[in-house]
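fwd from M.: "can u put these together and see what the complex looks like"

so here's what she sent:
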Amino acid sequence: MDFGVEALIAAVNLHLDLGEFKLHGVNLEAADGDYMVVLGPSGAGKTLLLECIAGLRKPDSGLILIDGNDVTSLPPEKREIAFLPQNYALWPHMRVFDNIAYPLRCRGISENEIKRMVKRVSDELEIDHILDRKPASLSGGEQQRVALARALVWGFKAILLDEPTAALDPALRWSTWKLLRELHKRLKFTAIHVTHDVAEAFALATKSAFMNEGKIVKQGSLSEVLSTAEAVRYLGDTNIIKGRILEAAKGEALVEATGTHIIAVIDGEPGEEIVLSLRPEDIVILREEKLESSARNILQATVESLEPQGPLVLVHTRSGENLMLKAYITKSSAEHLELKPGSKITLCFKASAVKRIA
Amino acid sequence: MRNLMMVFGIFSAIILFFLIYPFISLIFLTDAESLGLTLSSGAVIKALLLTLEAATISTLILMVFGVPLAYVLARFEFRGKKLVEAITDLPLVVPHAVVGIIILIAFGPRSCFAPLLEEIGMVMEDSFWAIVAVFCFVGTPLLVDCAKDGFASINPYLEGVARCMGAGPGRTFYTIALPLALRSILTGALLAWARAMSEVGALLIIAYYPKTINVLVIEWFSVYGLRYTVALTLILLSISIVVFVVLRWILGWKH
């Protein structure tokens, strides 16, 4: 039966009611090679969605399609989808080698070939020195790499990742994102990765979706997804800026973001892709084009829209090629500056107000 | 606080004395000569071997049938589950003599199952298999409850990920669930085995012959008196202590 869906993995109108957690007509598509990040708050139904795709839960209604075929009634072992849950689910009674070799043994591959394949993936993930150890003796980062190796050792059609960095400290999270990015670039696997962390989405997503209250609110590029009202509410008003470090010295970096240069007090290496945050109350709006200020960042911008919020106004602006920034201003200041859509303004903010989040 | 601890200490010492003194007095009352005579008695060796064999076979039978039941109870929700759990635990509250009588009624020579059981060489009265049946009956709740707790304590994702990795339900059971619940299963099996070794009430009704070691103790006590039974009791006690030590070791064993 042709369902007219070209995606490698698709959830079509999924419904599932478990009381506390629900799916309400979820539609999601991930094409071959996509790194799809499903972003959303806790309790949005993200894990439930992954469990339905993996075959660990049967939806009340709706379809799961893999390669255009309906697999909704197929057991997990027939779907060829690897699942990496939040706690990694490494089998504690097996050595790391046996954990990684498990999918290969399930497929009756010879022991010599298993050794070769485990060696290859463990070299790739730099865990070849821990193959004889039991999972309980590994650090969180090592456990995560072993779980990834187990998911990558066999050519699964896709990998489902459920908040894989939630239990890691910030430094380890950054290195995990880097690792996942590099692995995805090299191995071109298809992934559906759920997280509540916007920085993680920025760091990894080639495609993304925003999920809330059991529904996919929007699916597309990350900027499209984050522009939805639900996503904006979830994110708060914080400006999220994706960029690349051009120069870095003495704890300061010059970052290129959508054709605009921003100076930030952050660590990093030139060429590094990063994600920055900037609170809207840290941005000052001026009407003068040239001014002297201690603020290191002075950008020319155009007002896109004004959003009254009680005594404040949230001013949506556009700088450079397409850098969208939001800034708070009092209602009286907005009137004094005669701000309206199309007004030319200057935005000022300190380098120290820009935080690196990924 | 100090006075309270002193009072509690005295109370604790009294109850510990109450528990340990019978063992000590038994050891002091037993002389080497009667121990040697008892150990070389053909009737004792025969009864001991019979009891060990019946307890071991009943435990193996329980593992074959009880472990799947424990897994079903731990992993699946179904209508009537509470009833199944209650039936499994029922032997815990049934008096020993009643166990003997109901097994005799249900599976004895005059029951509807008798022709079928005789066909496969099992006569459920005064026979080895009658002893095994009693041991299975009284051991079921111990093994099933322990194994069920073991399976229930395994994170379901450990099995779910195995399924995603390509293992069918059977492979997932014996490569993931079974090894992870092994400690609980062994603990349950050992408790069921120890329970079997100590059973006597039901056997007096359904299988006085062939004599198990506990039936022999009761017979010797009634016929010859206390002194004649002391050495035999010490042998039984030693077996119980070995089982107890092994049980403690398994409970402390980690992956």
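replying to her w this: The interface with chain B takes residues 51, 54-56, 75-77, 79-85, 87, 89, 91-93, 102-103, 106-107, 134, 136, 150, 154 of chain A (CB under 8 Å).
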